[in-house]
Amino acid sequence: DVKRRLEACDAFILASPVYVGNVSGTFKTMADRYAQWWHRPSLQGKPFLCVVTTGGAWAKKTASLLSHNGYAWGGHYTGMVLESKMSHKRRVKAQMLGKDYVKEKEVAEFLRCATQPRCMTVPRIVEIYQFCTMVSMGVIVHRYGPDGAWYRSQGWMDSEGRLSLLYPAGYLPLTHRVVARGLQLLYRTVIPAPAMPDDWTLEDTPSVEAHVSVNADPVSPSPVSPPSTYQCASGDIEEALQ
Q1: Could you tell me which CATH number the domain at 2-117+223-240 has?
Q2: I want to staple 50 with a disulfide (CB 3.0 to 4.6 A). Which of 66, 98, 125, 198 is the partner?
Q3: Where are the chain's structural domains?
Q4: Could you tell me which Gene3D superfamilies the record lists for this protein (predicted)?
Q5: Ordered DSSP codes for 59-82
Q6: For the whole prediction, is pTM greater than 0.85?
Q7: SS3 of residue 138 by DSSP
Q8: Residue 135 above 60 pLDDT?
Q9: How confident is the model over 15-56, as pLDDT tens digits?
Q10: d(Cα 50, Cα 34) in Å, to the nearest integer?
Q11: Cα(235)–Cα(229) distance, integer angstroms
C-alpha cells in the first residue's frame, strides 16, 4: 500500500515520465486518492526528491507538479533529477568514462536530509506558506469535523480551536518564524470561523477512528497499485540515477 509505505518512510522519491506535458495518469490517480493530505499533511518534514524522464521536453514543468504535491503533503523538497532522450550522448559518454551520469550535487541534499535528524532540517519558505495556508484554513473552517479531530490527535490545535505551533518539523530561523506567525494571524483575521454549535463539546469531535473511516480509500473496480515510477527499482528511476 503506497499510503502506508509513504507514512512509514524516512524519505521518499516522487517520479513520473512526462505524459503530454504532465505527470502520468497513475501518479495523478494516486494523488487524487490521497487528497486529504492537502489539509492533513501526514508526511510533514520528510525529505523528497523529484525524478522525471522524458523523450523531449516538459521535464521541469512535470517536476514542478510533482514538487507541488510533495509540498502539500508536508514534505521537504531537496531537488530534482531530469532525464531526457536528448541527453543520451552525455549518458553514453559518462558510461564510457566509468562515471555516474547523475551529478552528485543533484542528489546530495536529498541524501543529507534523509540521513540527518529531522530537527536540523530548515524548511523552505514555500513549505511554510503551504502549511500555514492549508492547515490554518483547515483549523479555522473545519475545526469541528474530521480535520479538527486529526489536528488534535497531532497536537496541532489547542482546546480553544487555534493552531498551536508555527511549523511541525525542522528548525525555523527568525525570518521563517516571522513569516509563519504573520500568515497565521492574517488567516485568523480575514477568514470567519464557523459558529460553534450551542451544545458542542470537545468530546463531540469525531474520533481518530471516525476520521479514518470517513477518509478510507474509495472502493474502485481497479484499485490503485504502487505506480512503477514510484519504485526505486523501476527502470525509469534506475536509469536516471545511474
Answers
A1: 3.40.50.360
A2: 66
A3: 2-117+223-240, 125-214
A4: 3.40.50.360
A5: HHHHHHHHHHHHHHTT-EEEEEEE
A6: no
A7: helix
A8: yes
A9: 999 999 999 999 999 999 888 898 889 998 899 999 999 888
A10: 18
A11: 8
